[in-house]
Write a structure and sequence with these properties.
By secondary structure, the chain is α+β, with helices and mostly antiparallel strands. It has a 3-stranded antiparallel β-sheet with strand order 1-2-3. It is globular and about 50 Å long.
């Protein structure tokens, strides 16, 4: 993801090194993310350690709206703000009503 600078599975599947077919890489990525579960407590602990958060950080709850294709989606996001940077660590899509 860092090398490709994208989270798009199609773009990630092209960037794999080796002789495996791009379609196989794509399916492998789909399986990984379908079965992947995050331990959010450990994830937040890792993020705060990684960005060397001391005491002056804030947890932000934000609802935003974004467009994917021709559909609008509402996203509820929980982030850590520290020194002017917000790092999202939990999010969910809200029902459109």
């Amino acid at each position: 993801m860092i090398r490709v600078r994208s989270v798009n599975l199609s773009q990630l599947s092209i960037a794999f090194v080796g002789k495996t077919l791009v379609a196989s890489n794509y399916k492998r990525l789909q399986r990984l993310f379908r079965e992947f579960r995050i331990d959010y407590v450990e994830f937040v602990r890792s993020i705060t350690t990684w960005i060397a958060v001391e005491k002056d950080w804030v947890v932000i709850l934000d609802r935003t709206q974004c467009e994917f294709g021709n559909q609008m989606h509402k996203v509820l996001m929980l982030s850590i703000a520290y020194k002017g940077v917000a790092v999202p660590f939990l999010w969910t899509f809200l029902a459109n009503r």
